[in-house]
């Protein structure tokens, strides 16, 4: 039995080393491509989710539908008093070009935030300090930038104390860098470079002072994890309407968690589609196994005839050829899994992230599918070999 399942098939594979290696390599490439594409998809989904969460997009944002509707301190305090709201802060978002004292410029988005920003937005201070309450009260011209911005503008991560010039709605003002932060994972900015603008955080009162804005652009909230955001949204709308009776249905409340969920679903679908496309290579590899096995049947007619003539049954022939197909497929799986592991590891080092890794479940499922394809595509040549007439096989050569 061991000879039929292992020794004979290995001997037959070693007779044609070049052909066997190419077949194994085809299976390995198929397995490797599926694992790598799936790993990249999972990594991309995780990176985007991390980046979204780092921006505080897990709660609700409240904005007035037109400029005549108030959205100020009273509305902010009202929102903060609602059950389920952990924290809330006013936000201003303005596009700007940042100019350093060395003449370098970067396209940026200016975020006017409150001193409690860390309660809502994931900001990890690397150098210096955050926006303080004193900065808010005094309309201070200070800012906090991310590491990527500091490195691009000043050639180093620690840019605390340097000056940059910002233009907000036509108003140009010099700002002193008070701190350098790492926002979320930083993966999107690292991977997409200039396609993702830099974020610069300044006191929201400073933005109001420079632009003359009486109302906030929007108010962003962080909700308790046990709170139903749909219920909270209705409660906020009810409270704001009670505060300003003429403002019924004049506020736009956006559930950012739902948008995040929709984006995650889209990314998952894209990953599944790409994995399915790459799985076609497994079918191609299976066809190559069938082709090689059919050629092998034609070359070994005399050997098959002799075996059947001395008493080998159809089951013995089928078992031997299926074992050969399985060995080719299994070897290709192992090689493909090893290749994907090192390629994913190299990719993780390239983007400086440990979250890019090959999922064990994906590896196992891919290998099982590959082995099954080896059985399916190796089955026809095995059956064909078992049906050969011994006399005709001996006479053909």
> What distance separates the N and C termini?
28 Å
Strands, total number: 10
Q: Residue share in helices?
A: 55-70%
For the largest beta sheet, what order do the strands appear in spatially? 2-3-8-5-7-6
Nearest-angstrom radius of gyration?
A: 32 Å
Element order, helices and strands? HHEHEEEHEHEEHEHEHEHHHHH
Strand content: 15-25%
Mean pLDDT: 80
The profile of the biggest β sheet is:
6 strands, mixed, barrel
Q: What structural class do you assign from the helix and strand content?
A: alpha+beta
Low-confidence stretches: 184-195
Top keywords for this entry?
19% strand, 397 residues, single chain, six-stranded mixed beta barrel, alpha+beta
Could you characterize the architecture of this molecule?
- This protein is of the alpha+beta class.
- The protein is 57% helix and 19% strand.
- The chain has helices at residues 2-15, 17-54, 73-80, 133-137, 147-154, 187-192, 204-211, 229-243, 256-299, 301-309, 314-350, 360-386, 390-395, and strands at 60-64, 85-100, 105-113, 123-128, 142-146, 163-168, 171-183, 198-203, 218-223, 251-255.
- A six-stranded mixed beta barrel has the order 2-3-8-5-7-6.
- Helix 2 (17-54) packs across helix 11 and helix 11 (314-350) runs antiparallel to helix 12 (360-386).
- The chain is elongated.
- The two termini are 28 Å apart.
- The model is unreliable at 184-195 (pLDDT under 50).
Helix-strand blueprint:
Blueprint: H1 2-15, H2 17-54, E1 60-64, H3 73-80, E2 85-100, E3 105-113, E4 123-128, H4 133-137, E5 142-146, H5 147-154, E6 163-168, E7 171-183, H6 187-192, E8 198-203, H7 204-211, E9 218-223, H8 229-243, E10 251-255, H9 256-299, H10 301-309, H11 314-350, H12 360-386, H13 390-395
Parallel strand pairs: 3-8, 5-7
Antiparallel strand pairs: 1-9, 1-10, 2-3, 2-6, 2-9, 4-7, 5-8, 6-7
């Amino acid at each position: 039995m061991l000879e039929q399942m292992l020794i004979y098939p290995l001997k037959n594979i070693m007779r044609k080393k070049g052909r066997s290696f190419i077949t194994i390599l085809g299976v390995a490439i198929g397995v490797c491509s599926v694992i790598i594409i799936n790993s990249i998809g999972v990594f991309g989904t995780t990176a985007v989710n991390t980046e979204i969460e780092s921006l505080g997009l897990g709660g609700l944002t409240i904005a007035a539908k037109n400029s005549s509707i108030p959205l100020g301190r009273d509305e902010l305090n009202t929102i903060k008093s609602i059950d389920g709201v952990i924290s809330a802060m006013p936000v201003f978002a303005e596009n700007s070009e940042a100019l350093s004292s060395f003449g370098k410029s970067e396209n940026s988005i200016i975020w006017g935030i409150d001193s409690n920003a860390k309660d809502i937005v994931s900001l990890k201070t690397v150098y210096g300090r955050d926006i303080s309450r004193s900065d808010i009260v005094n309309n201070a011209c200070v800012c906090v930038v991310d590491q990527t911005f500091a490195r691009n503008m000043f050639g180093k991560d620690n840019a605390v104390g340097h000056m940059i010039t910002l233009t907000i709605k036509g108003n140009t003002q010099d700002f002193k860098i008070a701190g350098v932060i790492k926002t979320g994972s930083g993966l999107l900015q690292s991977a997409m470079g200039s396609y993702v603008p830099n974020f610069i955080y300044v006191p929201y009162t400073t933005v109001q002072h420079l632009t003359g804005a009486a109302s906030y652009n929007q108010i962003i909230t962080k909700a308790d994890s046990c709170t139903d955001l749909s219920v909270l949204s209705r409660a906020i709308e009810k409270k704001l309407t009670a505060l300003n009776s003429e403002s019924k249905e004049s506020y736009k409340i956006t559930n950012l968690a739902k948008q995040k969920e929709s984006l995650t679903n889209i990314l998952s679908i894209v990953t599944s589609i790409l994995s399915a496309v790459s799985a076609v290579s497994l079918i191609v590899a299976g066809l190559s196994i069938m082709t090689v096995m059919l050629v092998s049947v034609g070359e070994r007619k005399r050997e098959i005839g002799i075996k059947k003539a001395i008493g080998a049954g159809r089951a013995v022939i089928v078992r031997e050829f299926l074992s050969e197909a399985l060995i080719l497929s299994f070897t290709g799986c192992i090689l493909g899994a090893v290749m994907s592991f090192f390629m994913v590891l190299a990719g993780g080092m390239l983007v400086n992230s440990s979250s890019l890794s090959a999922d064990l479940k994906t590896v196992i499922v891919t290998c099982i599918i590959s082995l099954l394809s080896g059985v399916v595509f190796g089955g026809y040549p095995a059956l064909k070999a078992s049906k050969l007439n011994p006399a005709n096989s001996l006479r053909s050569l």
